[in-house]
Write a structure and sequence with these properties.
InterPro entries: Aldolase_TIM, Ribul_P_3_epim, Ribul_P_3_epim-like, RibuloseP-bd_barrel. GO terms for molecular function: D-ribulose-phosphate 3-epimerase activity; metal ion binding. It is an enzyme of class 5 (isomerase). Catalyzes the reversible epimerization of D-ribulose 5-phosphate to D-xylulose 5-phosphate. This protein is an alpha/beta fold and 216 residues long. The chain has 8 helices and 8 strands. Helix content is 33%, strand content 20%. Strands 1-8-7-6-5-4-3-2 form an 8-stranded parallel sheet. It starts with a strand and ends with a helix.
Amino acid sequence: MQHKIAPSLLAANFTNLAKDIDLINNSEADWLHIDVMDGVFVPNISFGPPVIKAVHSIVERPLDVHLMIVQPERYIEMFAELGAYLLNVHYEASTHLHRTVQQIRQHGMKAGVTLNPHTPVSVLEEIINDVDLVLLMSVNPGFGGQKFIEHTYDKIKRLKELILRKGSNALIEVDGGVDNHNAAALVQAGADVLVAGTYVFGSPDPVEAIRKIKHL
């Protein structure tokens, strides 16, 4: 399977989201990554339901929604109604992770679990067969434009080993500091989905930037 590209809306031009979404529609992007932050779980606030609903009405790619919020289980039904294709919850924010994952699937979405940089992949031992995707944060969550954490490569390899050993079909997604300099190494390590924000939307030609990391 060729790796997927999920540009992150967090790095888009908020004064002209329609224009940037049109760029995504005319690119080789596979998904659109949307970070939802509550200012509690992470020190920032981002998109709310009205913005996501508006984005869903014009984007031609599946919505990869990443919840960086406390008590994510309270909002599963709402994000299903907003059109999320995949709903990602943090291991660190989910007290009853298995129940939350099951509820996401019951609402017709793919279920993802996110790990912060300090959280080892071993915590997924008992749930890896129940999730469709694991998102590894390669920066500390909350802000775009951060420097890539180098030990992510080894973490991807450990996660891939766990997935293969358990016979799981989970994809590996990486988010944070992804660009044309590290994309090939991330895919070689085992990443299936690359989230790229600043690299894409900060580029003079976002469509070409996406093409570069899609065709490594």
